[in-house]
Amino acid sequence: MQLMINNRKVENPLAAIAMVLFALTFVGVVISLILLVLLPLIGIFISSFVALVVVVVMPIMLWFVLPVLFITIIGWFFGHLFK
Fold first, then answer.
1. How far is 65 from 8, CA to CA, in rounded Å?
2. Which residues make Cβ contacts (< 8 Å) with residue 10, sequence separation at least 6?
3. pTM strictly above 0.70
């Protein structure tokens, strides 16, 4: 078996094993960075967006939209009832 790297033949089996281990370690580091750093950051941004929607949009709905909706429904119901 001949291993060619940069047009040079690598004859030492320990060097070939070391290069394979280095490549596997590099792949493991990239995967761990994605899983342990990037995914939690995405989760933090998503949860902060949901919290922002709950804190900003829900009070607007509760204080402004629902009373108008309920008054409209009550007016429509009693308007048809007393006609």
1. 74
2. 3, 4, 16, 19
3. no
